[in-house]
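If you are new to this repository, start here. Below is one unmodified record pulled from the training split, so you can see the exact layout before writing a loader.
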Amino acid sequence: MDSMDGPDIRMEKGCLSKIFHLSQNFRTHAGILKLAQSVVDLLYHFFPLSVDALSPETSFICGEAPILLESENDENAILSIFGNCDFSGNFVGFGAEQVILVRDDHSRSEISNLVRGQALVLTIVECKGLEFQDVLLYNFFGTSPLKSQWRVIYGYMKEHALLDNSSQWSSPSFDDAKHNILCSELKQLYVAITRTRQRLWICENALEFSKPILDYWKKKCLIQVRLVDHALAEAMQVRSTPEEWKLQGFKLLREGNYPMAIMCFERARYTYGEKLAKASAFKADADLKHISNPQEASDLRRQAAEIYETIGMADSAAECFYMLKEYEMAGKIYMDKCGESALEKAGECFSLARCYSLAAEAYARANIFSKCLSICAEGKLFEIGLRYIEDWKRQGTEKKSKEIEKLEQDFLESCTLHFYNLKDYRAMMKYVKAFHCIDSMRNLLKRLGCLDELISLEEEFGNFLEAAKIVRMKGDILREVDLLGKSGKNREASMNILWYILFYSLWAPGSKGWPLKQFAQEEELVAKAKLLAEPEPIAFYEYVSVESSILLNKQNSLAQMKEQLSASSRNGSVRGEILCARNILDFHLRQNNSNFCWDYDWLVDPVNYSEQLTLENQISVDSMVCFWNLWREKIVRIIESVGCVEMPVGKENTSCWEFCLNYFGVLEQQNNMQRTYHLLNPDSDWVRNIDKRSLHKKRTIGCFGS
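And here is the target side for that same chain:
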């Protein structure tokens, strides 16, 4: 930062600040630091590139100089220290903050047999990163692979004038290749020395191998030599409280040193920690033997799982069962004992165990919608999946992404298709109704051809007009009439009834298209058509009334038929005109010659004369010719309309075309630019007598089909 009183001390961008080495040690005392520095000096001398050149550490803490232990009568110093036992029930040995360091597992096994659980025994590798109040370094040089090559240190001592009489000490010449292992040995020695905060004891069995380094330390006055007696042994041993043993046990447990952790917890009489360490040891051993000895690894993992369960370590127990591929057991532990955070793991375990219902429950409780529905689909748990979807909607938790909504839709569609293939349409509709929107329901049901179900769905939702359109596709005219009536389309409903009556009057079984024949329900349908027409304008009601009278085809007088013809003409009803003209013409043809009026006034217009006779219920040749011409004219017009390449244009042409379709019972459907025609009754007489191939003739406007 800038200063008005001094120089600008800002660093240039990209420059490193000066590095300071902190040489003051607040952890251990100067005696330990000097001994460690003596090892670093040897490293500097023999392997200058292996360590950084730093200033020696210093300390203001006072402490006892490291001690070289010697025993009487060549007895192992360890036996002198740990050979006695206090039979009062208390251990006599090292405390929780004291440790014996050895080179390897073999040495540890040897020492463990001697100390019999009265001290922690670790290898140097295991103790890296740990600290202890006191350290006993056992037989480091006696087990060293260098053996007599440690004598190379005498060469260093000679160079630094640390030998009184050089002729008494033989030293091999240092060779980097020959003595390269010395580097790692010195580093291990440094680690071992620096593990202590207070006291360091060195115990060696092979004097010939350790003598060079011990002479080096003695010459530098870094160590003291003590004979192990009862007083020293007692002074070395420190009693620790159960809490101290417990804390040390957890430290070693974190480091993965399970045997020593078990020992600490045993000394602390802490059963939980002891079981935890044992379970962790079984698990670690199983991991090592997973490939080399799968069966033993499985046995070890099962023991670990059982112990974890007894101490409430549910996560670890579940993990062990998972590794054993006992997925259902793992899933139950995760779900029942490990809380909400483990529900997803529970779902994965149940999925692997093919316990789909439990997997779905776990994912649902965790609000993992996507996995819940996926597992329901995989396990064909359609009912359960649907229930979850409905529950999420009721709880208001369905604020999901489009991806999740698509997954829900895909699930519901898969359910629908499943029950569709089983032809269980009732069950199918439960899932269709759960779709997110009515358009999705319509599209799928149409694609599957489930028109009856779609009609019921539209009715249930009150979409009567949509239902009527679908019913029309099926050709169910009377049901369409009911639906049109419910949607308020009375006019269309009434017209459909009239068309239905016309077709079945002409083409009922045994009929050949003429004359009109009565059939069951005809009068009921006529009444219904009039009832539907009542709310409509009076003109339409009168139209329906006239059409109904014509279709009922009761034995009307000639004058009544003429009146119906006139009314049809006024109403613009091609159907009424054709039917009335044909009825009047048939009336003429059924009469005897004696019933004809042969008087004729040549001064009178034939048409007016014919109409006058008809109103008087009389007939003549002129009247017959007149109505023949009228009927023929209408038929020709219809034929011309049907023969057009394009659809007829104009009101009259359209009316003729519609009458033709009505007459033959052909239902016209329009879908986008395509027109399709369906037969109301494919078994009609006229259909049976024509070439079926003509029913599929392709045209620019569409095609015919049944």
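Two things worth knowing about this chain: The chain has four domains: 30-238, 286-435, 555-664, 666-706. The radius of gyration is 55 Å.
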